[in-house]
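Two proteins, back to back. First:
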Amino acid sequence: MPIYLQLMEKIKHDIISGVLLPGAKIDSVRDLASSFGVNPNTMQKALSELEREELLHAERTAGRFVTTNKLLIESIRYKEARSITEGFIKQMRSLGYSEEEIIEFLPYTFKVEE
């Protein structure tokens, strides 16, 4: 996966998980590039794509900000959760688990985490 896509996924994850809050100002391209250890042009591409997806927006002199559109954030969060869940179910089925067995397995998993 290209680096700019990896950067997009990381920033998107930070937005949908609440690490970056709606309306929060994000660091400059140079600062982000430095902290991720990538070329500023690569970071710029990732941020531009996130703007295109409307997760970020730029204000000319003030910088870039996380969207305040909570419905958009929740929609993306839901799609990500659904994708993770579908992957989990596919893997469990490849191990031979039935739908009923998968459902029975989940409460046990939560108890082990505690």
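And the second protein:
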Amino acid sequence: MYGHRAKRFPKLPSHRRDLQIPFPFRTTKAGDDFLLWQSASRHILVFATGYNIRLLAAMQTWVMDGTFKIVPQWYQQLFTIHAIVAGKLVPAVYCLCTGKDIATYGFIFQALIDKAAVLEVDLNPDTIICDFETALIPAIRGYFPNMRVQGCYFYFYQAVHRKVGELGLKTRYRQHEETRRKIRMLLATAFLPVPQVDTVVSLLEAGTTEPITTWMEGWHNQLNRKAAKGHNGFHELLELLIAFPPFKRVKSAMYGHRAKRFPKLPSHRRDLQIPFPFRTTKAGDDFLLWQSASRHILVFATGYNIRLLAAMQTWVMDGTFKIVPQWYQQLFTIHAIVAGKLVPAVYCLCTGKDIATYGFIFQALIDKAAVLEVDLNPDTIICDFETALISAIRGYFPNMRVQGCYFYFYQAVHRKVGELGLKTRYRQHEETRRKIRMLLATAFLPVPHVNTGVSLLEAGHTAPPQPSLSYTKIN
């Protein structure tokens, strides 16, 4: 049977160094590039689509693991990287490796970082969950220094029980309650605060994660069932990985299943009634502060949050569009800066971005503050450079100072550089880069000197970047 199945695939060369992967095994069924990187010297193959790299860039938690059962000849392990999306484990990167050393993992991570740079995204996860492999953890820390490595309890449990077997203690473990209790206490050290953990188990400093283990083992079992045998043929394994359901394909089913937990929306926005469980917090406080039937605006905030805004001197306002549900244009949020931290206080679902929309929101907050007998008088409001928002802020909070956000200024300038067709020139000419950076630095000048600074840049500038300087003066 296996011989008959093998006839469907190209014959492998005699030596690994001569391996050439045919086109059908380099792309997905949708035509996307699947072979991301191939190392002739290290004999490493990395498979991932551009979509999967973007998915990793968007997710804060990754899971890394290796499997050995289904690996074809010439290779030691199939190393995989998964993203956690909406509580599900989604495979993103597959790597066939001939080793398990720091250099191997370093080559893989560098390939991913290089691809991310081409796609103009950053790979900066908050947490990477993996087993306690000593080569993998240093490689992770070397290439992703700002993240947290979190150990997997399942692998710690396995390692301890493997050691019990190696020491000839299995019979004693089964028959003696005291031995069992001691081993269980050893396993429980994984849940202690790091400074209190014995040096013998210091590798557990990052903590444990039992649910992730269940997902990871479930994924491996699913892959093994699809493979139907150990040590598959090379092309056979590639065909299996290409056919493995990508996130794009399982996303709709996953979201559909999740949607069943929530009440069905009416046909028209005007008929929207928010059920009681979504009008209050888990502590029972009112969360829906105001609802406009005419403007279709929803403002969510607790009384505590309004008091927090009243007590703080600096607010930050911003809007996001990516996660907004149907019927709405943006989720507008107001944050307080508390002890140097950004604390969200007000959430607003809006259908517009005009002065009237922001005016309705601010009036709702002022009315609620009056009921609570507090005043909303911040010294400073930080926001982007949206003219409607700034005008509304100045109308409702006339005594405060509007402060632009450097991030948005940086974005706006670079967006204008792109619109003016100067991206290539910016990348290739040091003088152009220097002038644009000097332009960005005008944000740190005293306000009365900004126009003078821009004019001085404009006077000494060559023709191509000049429109971007004019744009800055106008805005």
